[in-house]
Specification:
With about 450 residues, the chain is an alpha+beta fold. Helix content is about 35%, strand content about 15%. The strands form three sheets. Strands 3-2-1-4-5 form a five-stranded mixed β-sheet, with helices on both faces. Strands 6-9-10-11 form a four-stranded antiparallel β-sheet. Strands 7-8-12 form a three-stranded antiparallel β-sheet, with no helix packed on it.
């Protein structure tokens, strides 16, 4: 059973890039790739740093080879938030960093050593980094180059690389009035074939995941997926799906559309031959618009010759390379489960959990337990609950308060009587004392008479 993957593990897998996506590397190639990866900048989760050392990348690669994605999960520290650096050294580190925020950790340590504040090799890089990170001072700034080297490329085989992007579409009539549409497309780099494309009413991660699911069902699993750098593409759910399908995610740099030129070229063709020709007055709903889109793709676009394919059509080019396309295989049996979303929840006292304003009943013995709610986001249906380790704990059902009105409640068969540790309870003891006192008093009065 699948379980949620740690965001740090997903990030580390994306950093490994070519190291994780290639099955075999030549002698000395590993070191060369790691050196190149260490020169890049990264959006590191929960950190102000933008660079990774070669040693860090090598350690992640070694762990990944030994234990896969699970081995990339971070280990918790017992000394988190603490530092053994003295107050005097802390003050010096802050002053040195604030004087020049672009200073690296190595430079800061050397200045401390030159000033006689610490002995040589007394301060470690990790200690200084954690301290500056807690003070939100670990970020560095770098000057960018004046020019960017760009070269055209093409994948060796169909299915090696897919490109994904969103194009703004026309407004159509819906039950809620006119709504803007968005075209989500996935294009194969080698054949220019559209793995799948669909108009959606949004450009969220869920819309992108829906198109990706249909694409892999029809065209197999790509080895790499090059997508935009927007928030929707960086969602944890999309990264988890790609990790489970062993798809390497590659993000384009912001404001550099040249990195997805083949898909931009498709968008130009799409505007000229589809959007300019379609009669929007004949479109009654989103399904009607998508039906025309899929007919145009299969009957026209996929069967047109391309100059970039030496006169071949995308469909012929893709079919000629089918032997290299990675099939779903055994993953086809659990494809629905792979595209499910998982949410951590604590079961309420009435045996329910909530999701997007809806309540679901779970096995009552899970009350007050922390569980994972497994949801099919496309059908808005909760499927089951799992333990934090991925074990199936049972099905869930939508809450029906009217049915619960006449529902038999679970009760113990034999309710034991309350046990009094020291004889009778306080009320009985008070009653006995009262009777004894006033009973004796009445007896004395009677004797006097």
């Amino acid at each position: 059973m699948n379980k949620s993957l740690h965001p740090q593990a997903l990030f580390r897998l994306s950093v490994l890039g070519e190291l994780a996506s290639r099955n075999q590397l030549e002698r000395g190639e590993t070191k060369k790739i790691i050196r190149e990866l260490a020169t890049k900048t990264y959006n590191i989760p929960n950190s102000n740093r933008v660079h990774l050392s070669e040693q860090t990348i090598l350690r992640w690669y070694t762990n990944w080879r030994r234990g896969g994605i699970e081995a990339l999960c971070p280990l918790s520290r017992n000394d988190k938030g603490k530092t053994k650096v003295s107050a005097k050294i802390q003050f010096a580190l802050l002053q040195i960093k604030k004087e020049n925020p672009a200073r690296s950790i190595n430079t800061i340590i050397k200045i401390c050593e030159k000033q006689g504040l610490v002995a040589k090799n007394e301060l470690s890089r990790s200690t200084v980094h954690r301290f500056l990170q807690n003070q939100k001072l670990s970020k560095r700034t770098f000057a960018s180059g004046n020019t960017i080297e760009r070269r055209s490329f093409v994948a060796e085989h169909a299915g090696d690389i897919w490109h994904g992007d969103v194009l703004h579409g026309p407004k159509i009539q819906t039950p809620d009035g006119f709504k803007k549409t968005y075209l989500v497309s996935l294009l194969d780099d080698k054949s220019r074939l559209i793995a799948h494309s669909a108009f959606c009413l949004g450009e969220t991660a869920l819309d992108i995941e829906g198109v990706l699911k249909q694409a892999v069902l029809k065209r197999g699993i790509p080895y790499k997926l090059i997508i935009d750098n927007g928030a929707a593409y960086r969602s944890e759910s999309l990264q988890t799906i790609c990790a489970l399908l062993e798809i390497k995610l590659v993000y384009c740099r912001p404001y550099e559309p040249e990195g997805k030129g083949k898909l931009e070229r498709f968008h130009r063709t799409f505007r000229e031959h589809f959007l300019n020709e379609i009669d929007i007055n004949k479109i009654t709903n989103l399904d009607d618009l998508n039906a025309r889109l899929w007919a145009w793709l299969e009957q026209i676009y996929h069967r047109q010759s391309h100059n970039g394919l030496n006169g071949k059509t995308p469909l012929i080019c893709f079919r000629e390379d089918l032997v290299h396309v990675r099939p779903l295989g055994f993953k086809a049996e659990k494809i629905d489960d792979i595209f499910c979303h998982r949410y951590a929840r604590t079961v309420r006292k009435d045996g329910t959990v909530s999701w997007e304003g809806m309540y679901f009943e779970v096995p009552y013995e899970l009350v007050d337990e922390k569980i994972i709610l497994v949801v099919d986001p496309h059908t808005k249906c909760a499927l089951r609950v799992e333990s934090l380790t991925g074990e199936n704990l049972g099905h869930v059902t939508p809450l029906n308060k009217h049915s619960n009105l006449c529902r038999n409640r679970q009760r113990p068969n034999n309710i034991p009587a309350p046990i009094t540790k020291h004889g009778d309870n306080l009320v009985e003891l008070a009653y006995q004392e009262y009777n004894q006192f006033y009973g004796n008093l009445e007896t004395n009065k009677t004797g006097e008479k």
